[in-house]
Structure formats: C-alpha cells, structure tokens
Design goal:
- The complex is a heterodimer.
- Chain A is α/β, with parallel strands linked by helices.
- Chain A is 35% helix and 26% strand.
- Chain A has 19 helices and 24 strands.
- In chain A, the strands form 6 sheets. Chain A has a 6-stranded mixed sheet, sandwiched between helices. Chain A has a 6-stranded mixed sheet with strand order 18-21-22-15-23-24, sandwiched between helices. Chain A has a 4-stranded antiparallel sheet with strand order 2-1-4-5, covered by helices on one side.
- In chain A, α7 packs parallel to α8.
- Chain A starts with a helix and ends with a helix.
- In chain A, 50% of the residues are buried.
- Chain B is an all-alpha fold.
- Helices cover 76% and strands 2% of the residues of chain B.
- Chain B is globular and about 60 Å long.
- The chains are: A alpha/beta, B mainly alpha.
C-alpha cells in the first residue's frame, strides 16, 4: 500500500467510497439532466445535459464566460441550481452545500490556489483534518506522513516549508495532493496548468493519470487544446452558457473544437503581421538589478521582443526593473538613443513605457473597484481640470476602452472582481491603451484567457505595432512567444542564455536553453 | 472565472443599493428623531436640537477625517488625543499672548505636522498604521500633560469662547463648521483625482503604484487630512469648554471610527463616502442625547451604542455580500 492510499484510507469509512464503488468503470457516475442556473435575468448556464463516466478524464472547454465556472460551482455545491437534476451514482442528489459535495467525494482544485500561505505544506495538506492525539496535534507525524505522500507522488517538495515559499506552480501541486489525500472519487481541475512550468505540468499530468488508474473520475477544464488531446478521454464544449456537444477525443480535432467553442473559424490564432521595423526605442546594456543580471537587448518600433523562460527565471523582475518598480542597480538603459535613468514608475511612464503586470490580482487591478476607475487610473491627470475630474471625460474614456476591447459588461460601474479572467485582462490592457506609450511590456497577457480573447489580444498587439510602438512580450507559453516574437530571448536564473530571430531555433532548442540541459 | 455576464449584471444595481443604504441610514435617523419627539417632551425644543447639533458636530468632523484614512485601508487611533492636545496648544499659545488668528493657524499646522509624522512612520519606517497612531495617541496625551503640568489652562478670550455658543441663521455655529469641512471633503473625495487615488491605494496598493499613482504621497495626504481635522475639532472643543486640557476627548477616536463604519465605510479599505460618516455621527449623537432625555442610565447608553454598531454594520455586510 502506498503512502497516498494509506492516507486516503482514513476517509474510507464515510459514505462516498461505498456509494461510488457500486459504479462500474465506464458507466455513468454523475449525470446532469437539464441543469440550469440563472442569475437574475441572465442565464449563466442554459439547460445542460452531460454525463460523466466513472474513471474517465472528461475535459471541458469553452471561452471565458461560457459557463465553465458556473458548472464547477454547481457541482461543488458553491451555488445552487435554478432548475434541473443531478444524479450521483444513479441517485438524485441535492449538492446544495460544499460539505455535501465533499462528503460524496467531489472535490475541486482551483486555478488560483486557495490554501493558507503562512502554514507549512504539511499543515495545509492536513488542514481541517489534522492528526490528533488527546486533542493535541501530532505535528511531527503529520509532517512525516505528508513528506511520504509528496515523495510517493513524485513531487520534489519539502513538507516542512511554508507554503508561501513555494512557487505558484508548486502550490498548485500541493492543492492537488490535498484533494488526492481526501479519498476523492470525482476531482475537478479548473485550469490547473495556467501558472505551472512545463515540468510541473508534467508532474501534474502523471498524478492525474495515476488518480484515473485508481478509479477517480477527472473533470479537466483548460484553455490549452494540446492538453485536452494529451490527457482527456472525452471533451465537452460550452458556448455562451450552452452545452454545444461532447466528443470522444479520438474522434475530434482541434479545428472542430475551436469551431464549436467560438462558432467562427479562427484561421490562425497567432497572426503575425509583417511590419517594417523602425528606429530602436529601447536598448539595455548589461542591465542588472534585483533578480536579473547582465541583460542586454533592444526593442525597435514595430517589433515584438519575446522573453521566454520558466517562472522565476527573472523575466518579470527584468520588466519591473525596466519599469522602475525595482530599479536596476547597474548597466545602462538607452531610450531613443539617449541614456536614461529610470528610478521609479513615474519616470518610466513619462518616457512612454507601459507595463501590464504578471498578476492581475496582485499587481494589475483594484478588484473591488469599478471597471471605469481601473481603466482611468493611469490617466486621471489627463481627465482632470486642475484636481477636479471631468465626469464627461472620465466616462468617455472608460466607455471607449470598453468598446474598443469589447469588454463584456453592462456598465463601467461594475466591479472588476465580478468579471471573468479574460475580461479582467482586457481591463489591464485597456488601462495602458488609454495612457498610450511607445513601449508596451506585456507580462503573461494570456494566462487564464480563452482562445477568442487571446486572438483579440494578439490583434491588439498588431494594432499597437502599426502605430509605431514596440512590445516586450513575456510568456511561459512557448508557442505564443515563438509564433509572435520577431526576436526571442531566453532567460534562465536571471540571465539571458539565448537570443534567436523569428523561427531561427526549434522549440526543443529554446526549451533546452530555458531548462538548462 | 467564467461567471462574467451573470455576476456582473448582479453587481450592476450596486449604485442603487448604495443610495438605498444611505436612505436607510437617514431613515433610521429620522425614525430616532420622530420616536424621541413622541416619547419625550423636550426633544424637539430649539435648545435641545442646537445641543444635539453641537454634540454631533465634533464627532462628524473627526469621522470625515478618519474616513480618508480608512479608505486607504488604514486606521488613525490618535484623533482623540490630537483633539485634547490641540486644545492645550491653543490655550497655551493664547495664554502666552499670541494673537488668536496666529494661534489658530499654528494649532492647525501642528495637526498637519502630526499627520506628516504618521505618514513618515507608515511610508518610511514601514510601521503598521495601528501601531504608529497608537504610539502618538499615548505620547500626545503625555506631552499635553507635561505642558499643562497635569492641570488645565483656561482660555480668557471672550470672542473665541463665545463662538461655540453662537448661532448663525438660527443654526449653531459648530454645525456650520461641519458644512465648512464636509463640502470641500466631498469635492476632494468624490470629484477630485486625489480621492480616486485614495480608493485605488486602499484597494490594491501595488496596482495603484504600477499605474503611476504616488502611493506614498496619497498615504501622507490621508493622515494629514485626518490629523488636521482632529486639530480643528480640538479648536472647536477649546472654544466650547473654554479650557485647554490634554485628557479631553478620551475615546473620541472610537466614536469617529464607529461613525465612519456605521456610515458604510469598510475597514478593509476602498469603500466609503462623506455623507455616510456624517449621518453615522449624528445617529450616535442622537442616541446619546435621547438616552439622556429618557433618563437612561449612561452605562446602558454605551451598551446600546455597541449593539447598534453591530446591527448596522452587520446589515451593511449583508448588503455587500448580496451585491457581489
């Protein structure tokens, strides 16, 4: 018996395993019949009928706002349905509360990790389910067990370290391990690889396959088509709250799925425009600062410069250095052939540098404030007469960006927190479009963003380039930088380890440089 | 993630709900006034109403200043101490023969300086707002007591002490002071870009910084405004009681915070208004006033105030959860 099974065994006494064991692999374990959810007048999920088979990996794809999260929330008991029925192991169930879902063995691993950052990995794994003796926690025993489970899963993670000391990707693995330890029968992954590096994704996939081989049913939500084809047995497509079809992965292809998802054909998501390169906008010479060392590169008008590397390789740090958030300590920055010193964000903005930062939640947006305020934040000076804001200019600017970027919202007064990831990303970008700049730094602009929105963002890049701007595009998703960047720089451990012209190196070469093999 | 259309439309009526909330607060205030009018003979007398407006005025001004700070997700515990301290400084200056106008300006400047110090502690030294303002709370009381040697300094300036008892257009001058503060405060918070920056800093400091908002300057500004409001209230108090005494206004910081929170300000930052705290302050003043008229034991007054804060803020939370 492996460590994981031993731990999971602690939960065998509850009702779920006995119940789920009655379902033979390949027969329905969870059936949704006409499941529907309305928010006021809005139908977030139109009557959907989907069947999940025991032991399958069932992918769900769809654009932002297609109803994927609504579906997850219904299945995990976070929200209650407006109409329809749910059958679990053939029995109608309420799934009215998260506890009921968990008690039946339905768990979810969310895109953004919902764990306690200040506790240790072990404490998080056992949170709410600690090993006690006489009411006192057995800390050492928990750590030992946790380490055994992590080793067993093949995660190279220390159980005794605090969660916040891990990368987001590693935290995601911890969250997955946590769900695996609870003797889960039905596990939902909501875009788990959005923040993962390639190796971490590989580890996660191994774990998912292993859970599947142990009879766990997996629901896998992702924007990344290649993952769906690599992992899933069947795939369901949602569009605008409607379930538009379920296919066997072996009998479909990417083109069909995308067509189903967006009901229009994208000839090419990566639409690289050929724009003659202009003057050099920015050049760094041996720039060093917190987290990056000796970086020399240049950006010309009409050029996309891609920065690729694993998470933590120093790309975002370089961007923050360039933007004056954590100013460079040595080396030179030349802006339009003039040596400049960027000591703070103001200096960067005044030169004409815009930064759409890596984390929407932590750096990009004021989540509990309206869309309009977020979009206008960098430009309030321009929208004011003296210190007093012109209401007309304020609303005009916000509405214009909402229209330009086709941000889906009834009003600019809506709070950003209530929007989907793709729309939130558009707000981050909208902020900087209204500010205007010569050099745009986009740090992971398409994380957690669906195909349609991705294409829109790429079209926006083309528009900016045509207007004579330069773009630094930071991405952990190789195809994106590979297909879009005129010049691709690879970061590893804070240093530039390779620079290639468009398509001059193969995927494998770039990846090898990033990993350092 | 994909809850877009659904949840955003649920959040759209928020503005309406906010108006509704203010109306509920005003409704509560009116209800208290009507109930007290029916329950006591003396509530709706000109004397008592003037009294009520005077009582509420000082808390209201403190609450407005406090609200700027709370919107940045901070807290200013020192305002009560600044009130007492300012009364001492003013009395001391007048006693030393400084002309009234100069004494008033110096007292307000002293308040600004305290605000600058708070900003310095938070921005430069990285201290939590709770700690730095708690430290000034106790130190200012101490300095005030040192200056007065533990007693009081009486103010003999007739025109000055007469001001707090005076009426203008039939309304107590102290209440006019609320309007004098509230109107510019409203313009500042809701119509100027500095106000927007306060909200942005309270919502997400890093996002504000990366958007080019000068976070440090915004924080300085909030604490300077709060401390200056408090110094202004200190002047009004000195006028009202005719003495400078460092131990005055004990616990007023909590009254100010309570008024602000009753008025819908979120202690987590980024939510707040000017009219809310004003109404909140007068609700608290009405409860105290009414309890006095009804001869309710003053110990009970405190209990009732506490319970009311819980109830009002609880309903406010419900409203916010509902609008998410």
């Amino acid at each position: 018996m492996t460590s994981l099974e031993q731990v999971a065994h602690r939960h065998d006494d509850s009702l779920k395993k006995t119940e789920a064991n009655r379902v033979a692999p390949g027969s329905p374990i969870l059936e949704l019949k006409g499941l529907q959810k309305n928010y006021g007048y809005v139908q977030a999920l139109k009557p959907a009928t989907v069947t999940f088979l025991a032991g399958e990996i069932h992918a769900i794809v769809g654009e932002n706002g297609a109803g994927k999260s609504t579906l997850i929330k219904l299945l995990t008991g976070v929200i209650t349905r407006t109409a329809g029925e749910i059958f679990w192991c053939g029995q109608p169930v309420a799934l009215a509360t998260p506890n009921e879902a968990i008690a039946r063995g339905i768990n979810a691993v969310h895109q953004e990790v919902v764990l306690c950052p200040h506790l240790t990995v072990a404490a998080n794994l056992f949170l709410g389910d600690e090993i006690n003796r006489n009411g006192l926690m057995r800390k050492r025993q928990m750590e030992k067990t946790a380490q055994a489970v992590l080793d067993d899963l093949g995660f190279n993670l220390p159980a005794a370290s605090t969660l916040s000391s891990l990368t987001i990707g590693q935290q995601q693995l911890v969250a997955t391990a946590r769900a695996a330890m609870r003797g889960t029968q039905f596990l939902i992954f909501d875009e788990p690889t959005a923040y993962l590096t390639r190796q971490e994704s590989a580890q996660l996939f191994k774990l998912i396959r292993r859970l599947q081989s142990e009879g766990v049913t997996i629901v896998y939500i992702s924007h990344r088509m290649e993952e769906v084809f690599e992992l899933a047995d069947r795939v369901s497509v949602l569009r605008d709250g409607t379930h538009v079809g379920t296919r066997l992965v072996g009998e479909t292809n990417e083109t069909e799925l995308i067509a189903l998802m967006i009901n229009r054909s994208i000839e090419q998501i990566y639409h690289k425009v050929d724009i003659p390169l202009g003057e050099t906008i920015l050049e760094t010479r041996g720039l060093s600062g917190p987290g990056f060392e000796d970086v020399s590169l240049s950006v010309r008008a009409g050029e996309i410069v891609g920065l690729y590397g694993l998470i933590g390789a120093g790309r975002s740090e370089f961007a923050l250095g360039l933007y004056g958030r954590h100013p460079a300590t040595s080396g030179e920055i030349h802006w339009m052939d003039k040596k400049v010193d960027i000591r703070n964000e103001h200096a960067a903005m005044d030169l004409g540098i815009a930064l759409a930062p890596e984390s929407r939640r932590d750096q990009g947006l004021c989540l509990n404030l309206p869309i309009g305020l977020n979009i206008n934040l960098p430009v309030f000076r321009r929208l004011s007469r003296g210190p007093i804001i012109s209401h007309a200019l304020e609303s005009a600017n916000a509405d214009q960006q909402i229209r330009n970027l086709s941000i889906k919202t009834p009003s600019r007064r809506v709070l950003v927190s209530s929007m989907s990831g793709g729309n939130q990303q558009k707000v981050v970008i909208g902020k900087w479009l209204s500010h205007g700049a010569r050099l745009f730094i986009f740090d992971e602009p398409t994380v957690g963003v669906d195909v349609g929105t991705k294409a829109e963002i790429y079209r926006l890049f083309a528009m900016l380039l045509k207007e004579g701007a330069g773009i630094i595009l930071i991405s952990s998703y190789l195809p994106e930088v590979y297909e879009l960047a005129d010049r691709l720089h690879v970061f590893r451990r804070g240093r530039l380890v390779g620079s290639h012209d468009f398509h001059a190196a193969s995927h494998e070469d770039v990846l090898a440089e990033a990993i350092g093999v | 993630m994909a809850i877009t259309s659904s949840e955003s439309s649920a959040a759209a009526p928020r503005r309406g709900v906010n108006v509704l909330f203010s109306l509920t607060l005003i409704g509560l205030l009116l209800f208290l006034w009507i109930a007290l009018g029916l329950g006591t003979a003396s509530f709706w007398t000109p004397l008592n109403i003037s009294n009520l407006l005077r009582q509420g005025a000082m808390t209201a001004i403190l609450a407005v200043g406090q609200t700027f700070v709370i919107i940045t997700a901070g807290i200013d515990l020192s305002v009560g101490a600044i009130v007492g301290f300012s009364s001492v400084i003013l009395a001391w200056l007048l006693h030393a023969g400084v002309p009234l106008w100069a004494a008033l300006i110096l007292t307000l400047l002293m308040g600004m300086a305290i605000g600058v110090f708070h900003g310095f502690g938070i921005v430069r030294m990285g201290l939590p707002p709770f700690i730095i303002t708690l430290a000034t709370l106790t130190s200012l009381r101490g300095i005030g007591l040192l200056i007065t040697d533990g007693s009081t300094i009486s103010i003999t300036h007739e025109a000055f002490t007469g001001f707090s008892r005076a009426n203008f257009l039939g309304i107590p001058s102290l209440f006019w002071m609320v309007i004098l503060v509230a109107v510019p405060a409203y313009i500042f918070l809701h119509l100027s870009r500095w106000g927007r920056y306060l909200f942005a800093v309270g919502s997400n400091r890093e996002a504000a910084r990366l958007s080019g908002v000068s976070v440090d300057r915004t924080i300085y500004m909030a604490y300077i405004l709060s401390a200056t409001c408090a110094a202004f209230v200190g002047i009004l108090l000195a006028s009202r009681i005719g003495i400078g005494n460092a131990t005055q206004a004990e616990g007023w910081e909590l009254q100010a915070i309570a008024s602000s929170v009753i008025g819908g300000t979120s202690l987590f930052g980024a939510v707040g208004s000017i009219h809310g705290p004003l109404i909140g302050a007068f609700i608290l003043a009405t409860i105290n006033n009414g309890a006095n008229l009804l001869n309710v034991n003053s110990f009970w007054q405190r209990i009732i105030t506490g319970l009311l804060i819980i109830v009002i803020v609880y309903f406010d939370q419900l409203r916010r959860r509902g609008s998410r």
